Amino acid sequence: MVLESFISPIKAENRPWTMLFLGFIYAVVAVFLSLWIFKQYSSLVMVFLTVVAVVPLVYNTLNMEEEKDRQLKSEMSLLKEHSKALKFFIYMFIGFVLGFVILYIFLPPDLVKLLFSSQLDTIDSINSRVSGKAIDTTNIFAQIFLNNIKVLMFCIFFAFFYGAGAIFILAWNASVISAAIGTFIRDKIGEYAASIGSLNVFNYFYLFNLGILRYFIHGIPEILAYFIGALAGGIISVAMINHDIESERFNNIMMDALDLTMLAIFVLFVAALVEVFITPLFF
Prior knowledge:
mainly alpha; about 0% strand; 10 helices
C-alpha cells in the first residue's frame, strides 16, 4: 500500500520525469525483496514484484485513457492525449532499466548470475537464433521485425485479457535489456582494465553511458511500440468492463485502438531498421 500509492495518473502525466525515479525505486526494492525472500527464483520474482508495484497506476491510467476516448472525437486529439501517458510509461521503463543495470554492475558476479539467470538464458537463445539462421541483413531485419511483432501481439492480448497485465511483459523486457547492457558494460570494463590498467570514475561513467546508448538507440522505440499496443488492448478491455460496448462510442474506441495498433507496428518497423542498419555503424 506504499509503493503503489506514490503517484496518480494525472500527476504522472503532468510530471512524467518523476516516473524515472519511481521506476528506479520499484526495480531496486523488487530486487532486494526477491533476493531476501525467494532467492532461488529471484530472476522471475523481481519482475513480478516490480509489476505489482505499478499495476494500480497502469490500471488507473487505462481507465483514464478510455474515458478520453468517450469524450474526445478527434483522432489527433486522442493521440495527443495518449502521448502524455506514453511519455511517463517510457520514463518508468527507463527507471526500471537503470535500477536493474546498476545492480547488475555492482553486485557480486555469483549473485548477478543467479539474479539474472532467466534473462541471460533468453539473451543466449536470441543470439543463437540470429547468428545461426540469419545470412544477411535482410534476413536479420525480417527476423527481428517479426519477433517484435510477436511481442507486440502478446502485449495487446495480455492488456485485453488481463487489463494491466501487459506490464509484466514490459517489465520482463526491461530486465532482459538490463542484463544485456550490464553484460556489455562488464565486458568493456574487463577489456579496459586489461589494456590500460586501473579505471577511474570517468571510465566507468563513459562505459555506462556507452552501454545504455547501444541498446536504447533501438530499444526505446521498441518499448514505445509495446506500450502503444498495451494501451490499445487495455482501452478495449476497460471499455468492455464499463459496458461501453453497448454505447455508440464503442466504434470510436475500436477505431482509436486500431490506429494505436497500426502506429505501434510502424514504430516497430522503424526500430528494426535502426537496430539492423544504424546501431551496427556505431557499435
